[in-house]
Amino acid sequence: RRGEMAKSTQLIDNEVFRAYVTYAAIVLIKMMLMSLVTAYFRITRKAFVNPEDTESFGKGESAKKYLRTDPDVERVRRAHLNDLENIVPFVGIGLLYALSGPELSTALLHFRIFTGARILHTFAYLIPLPQPGRGLSWAVGYSVTFSMAYKVLKTAWLL
């Protein structure tokens, strides 16, 4: 049924939609795990931004030294922010794309490349790997989202 919009009653039987749900769940879980990584780095580096988070280290002046920034924590936070800036659009555009009737093989290629690029981007950010590794992984994922958006517009507006 290439080129036809899927009906809501057919979604559960639609292989493209099921693939989308699978890969969207993977990247969303990955993004959620970044919160835990941030917490881990905050705790192990003892770098907090809220006074109440330092109470286990003492009160008053003794706790104030833990109200600080840490380069490792900030790196994890930037990686997490980059996920928010890229995974959220993928989820929205990917849904529209899945509903636009693409071939399964093409859709899987889009979803797998995006997911792989985001996972590689996270490793490149956290290790850190030398550039252009992080930049290329970002560009690949971003390009995939644009490719899906183009297909959606082409199908919906007959471009």
TrEMBL record:
UniProt subcellular location: Endoplasmic reticulum membrane; Mitochondrion outer membrane
Gene Ontology CC: one annotated term: endoplasmic reticulum membrane
Keyword set includes Cytoplasm: no
EC code(s) of this entry: 2.5.1.18
Subunit architecture: Homotrimer; The trimer binds only one molecule of glutathione.
Keywords tagged on the record: Acetylation, Endoplasmic reticulum, Membrane, Mitochondrion, Mitochondrion outer membrane, Transferase, Transmembrane, Transmembrane helix
Gene3D superfamilies to which the protein is assigned, alphabetical: Membrane associated eicosanoid/glutathione metabolism-like domain
GO molecular function: glutathione transferase activity
Membrane topology classification: Multi-pass membrane protein
Enzyme class: transferase
Main location: endoplasmic reticulum
UniProt-recorded name of the protein: Microsomal glutathione S-transferase 1
Keyword presence, Transcription regulation: no
Domain of life: Eukaryota
PANTHER family in alphabetical order: MICROSOMAL GLUTATHIONE S-TRANSFERASE 1
Functional note: Conjugation of reduced glutathione to a wide number of exogenous and endogenous hydrophobic electrophiles.
Catalytic activity: RX + glutathione = an S-substituted glutathione + a halide anion + H(+)
